[in-house]
Amino acid sequence: MEVIPVGQDGWNENIRQATLDIQETAPTTPQLEPTMIGDVAPTCTIQQSDSELAAPNGTTLGYPPTPPHTPPSSFRSVEPMTASHITINPSADALSTPLYLPSLPRTPPLGFTAHPPPRDMSPSAKLICLFRWTHFSPITSAPYLSRSPREKNFSMSWSDSGATDAVLAQWVKEMWWGVWVRQAHVNYVGMWKRRFEKEDRKAKEAKAEKEKAKVGMKMKEKAQMELDGRKTKILERLRVINGC
Question: Out of the domains of life, which is the source (predicted)?
Fold first, then answer.
């Protein structure tokens, strides 16, 4: 897709960082009714007053997917709109969606710093990245950000989302860097999670080996004491036999 920024075009080191929501376990979310793309989309919520899903320019999109742990009674009736009526402005509220991250057992020695992807990252790879973070309102077909990415093997056709080509093109063009920073943060946490797990596994194995060696030493000392005891008894018998 030609609208995807090429190389570092549009990259800014001061790009808006996501609000982090550190979770001990992965968030559980109720399922939606099938969307226009024929999938049951995982629930993902943008922080808005009265639990409404709003377009970045403040235009109400209609009922959002049910937020986790939010009772249905908190909703109020909203006039639905179509995605063709929506103007996306990611610099405003679209990137305010909090980012779910798993907790780490300890603080990494190096903090997260966003960097652009490799220059040779293909447009298809960028689209897959965008696919994993983009959901569509089942009421308005408007795209919005997820709080966590879908699985890597997820596939979908945006042409079946119900959103217009203009909306999709604008979403891809304006949301790419914000989505990439989120993905990079997820990659960073995942890297340190695996590294810490490896370190902890090695430390556990080393401790087990140390305990094993300690037990082996005690058994060896016990065996030596038993051997010394038998030698002492044999010498005493010999002295008795020899009349010493």
Answer: Eukaryota
In this structure, the dihedral spanned by the alpha carbons of residues 80, 85, 88 and 92, taken in order and rounded to 10 degrees, is: -60
Query: Per-residue pLDDT for the chain (244 aa), expressed as one digit of tens each?
Result: 567 777 677 677 666 677 777 776 544 444 443 333 334 333 333 333 333 333 334 433 333 343 333 333 322 223 333 444 444 444 456 678 888 898 999 999 999 988 888 888 888 888 889 989 999 988 888 899 888 898 887 777 777 788 888 888 889 888 888 899 999 999 999 999 999 999 999 998 888 888 888 888 888 888 888 888 888 888 888 887 877 5
Q: For residue 113, what are its two tokens?
A: 């710093």
List residues bridging with 136 in a β-sheet: 143
CA distance 162 to 139: 10
